[in-house]
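Workshop exercise sheet. Pairs work together: one partner reads the sequence aloud, the other fills in the structure field after running the prediction. Swap roles for the next sheet.
Pair: D.N. / O.F.
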Amino acid sequence: MNSSPSSSREDPHYTLPNGWDFAAERLALLGAAYDPESIALAQRLGVRAGWRCLEAGAGGGSFARWLCRTVLPGGRVLAVDADPCHLADIPDLGGEVARLDLVTGELPEREFDFVHTRFVLLHIADRDIVMERLTRALAPGGILLLEEGDGMGVLDQMPGAFGEVWRAFARSTEIAGANQSWARNLPVRLEALGLADVGAEAQIPMFRGGSPMARMWNLTWAQTHESLTGLGVSPGTVAAARAELGDERRRFYAPPTVRAWARRPLQPSHLPDARR
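Structure field:
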C-alpha cells in the first residue's frame, strides 16, 4: 500500500487532503460510519423537499448525495470542496459542485436554508473565518449544522497501540493547524455570531475491530504514517495499532463528535462582516 498522500491536489488549509490513493475508500467508510447520525439530526432540524442546501467541505460526497435525494427536485444542493475529485456524480443527481477554498473563496450570501459541514473546520487553521462565511451564507431563518471531533478528556484513556497512535495523530494534526479541543465551545461561538436557537450534543462513537469505522481509522494511520513516525511513533507501534483495528474481538471508542446547530434570525441581525 502506498501510504504517502498525493501532493498534486492538496488543500493547503486542510490537514487530511482528498488527493491520496486511498482517500475515496477512507471517505466512503467515514460516511458509512457517521451518515446515520448526521441524517437523523438533519431530519430532526426539518430538512425536507424544496430546501436550498450548502454542503461545505463535501469530501466523499455521501451526505451531499442524501441531500440531493431529500430536497430535489424543487430545492438546491451545492457541494463545495477544495478538491472535488470525489463528487463527479453529484450533478447527475441534480446537485451542483464547485471547487472552492472555504478560507479564501466566495460563497453566496443569504441564500441557503441549510448549511452543513462535518469534520472539516477543526482541520482548518482559519476556522473562525470559515464559520463567519458559512453564517453569512444562511438565508433568514436558515439553519447551520456543524459536526466536529473533539478530544474532550478521553484521549488519555484510549488504551493499547490504538490509543498511542491516536494521541500522536492528534498532535500531528495540531502541528498542521488543527485544533482538537475547539469544537466543545461551538455553542458559544454560534451565539457570538448572532445566531439564535442554538443547540448542541456530543456523542462518543464505539465500534468493533473490523467494522467500517475501524477500517476508516486504519486507512487514516496509513495516510498519516510519515507524520506519525516523525513524531517518534515506531513503525512497529503503527503496525500494532492497525492489527488491533482488524481484530473483531476488540472494541474501541473514537473521539467524541460534537454537533452544534443554530438558526439565522428572520429579522435583520448584526452578523460579522465577511472577511475577504
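Discussion prompt: Strands lie at 52-56, 76-81, 96-99, 112-118, 138-149, 196-203, 206-208, 251-253, 257-263. What would you look at next?
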